[in-house]
């Protein structure tokens, strides 16, 4: 019995340490509330424009696209703000700007295309700003491989919140336009609560880092950013590529697409932290290249599975999707951590903002690329994705690619000083314990 109790205590201690390195209990609650609210509305924003505001599909889709592009355009300004020391305030701002977007959705009358467009813009800015601001905060309060695990835990928690929110919203959709308005209102409240919790953590970078940022050069991460824009296609495989192939090419039941999406979410939630911790044995660059290799193998697996006979193709595609999800987990658990490792101490914000810019660009173009390749056959789709990902993995693995110049972010390797705890982390911990 003592052995079991000891194991339980160890697990609790590790969980508590992971929460602390992720920003603290209040910040973890803020992430969960924010993700839950996002899951309630974001998958159904197009439906809101169509069913509640009675806009046409082209107008609604164009407004949403403009919102995403505007969010990407704001990334350089966010990077500069982060390099001046903003952390919890930047996270809270990314949530508050989405509150403004939700309010505009609620007050927009039927046919209010202009208000919907501005609402989509605010939501797009907040959605694009949050990942970089969150990564900068975690990099400030944790270091080394502990930071990798903290970033992985944040992703797992966010995916869980998004999934729960989407399930709740799906159950409410039978209520029609009134239910969609209620979901939007609940989303706004969730964003407001999350912003208050995030701001209360009061984490900022040391003033010295902020002063150094003013005159320092921007980080050079061209190889990694270009590779990331290709890697990120994997995030749209379960949502776009596989449903397209399963339904239109293999003529399988839509149930298979739903099963693949649910399995992807469950695997990310359960395996993101363990896999990221296990990868700590490898250099981050090697692990990221390995993730690209796994993704490329899965794409070739989809190509082979699609050629199986009737009745076998859909189950085979679903089985290969597990391999693709593992590649996604390796990529997501390594890429942001590698950016924080390579970023110079004077410009972590600009490095993370540039990384999010490449991520957003890849996510924006991937649906168009996937849907353009699919009509030309499985070889064109999966062969192109596999070749592109292998090239990206090779570029990442190349020795000397994006070699950092000057000091790195404090705590990126071994922590400074005998204690191994960066000044930024000491200040953040002190702020949380006041």
UniProtKB/TrEMBL annotation:
Subcellular location: Cell membrane
Keyword set, alphabetical order: Cell membrane, Membrane, Transmembrane, Transmembrane helix, Transport
Membrane topology qualifier: Multi-pass membrane protein
InterPro entries tied to this protein: MFS, MFS_trans_sf, MFS_Transporters
Keyword Oxidoreductase: no
Stretches that traverse the bilayer: 27-51, 63-82, 114-139, 160-177, 221-246, 258-280, 287-306, 312-339, 351-373, 379-397
Compositional bias ranges of the Low complexity kind: 419-434
Lineage: superkingdom: Bacteria
Disordered: annotated segments: 398-434
Name of the protein: MFS transporter
Organism: Kitasatospora terrestris
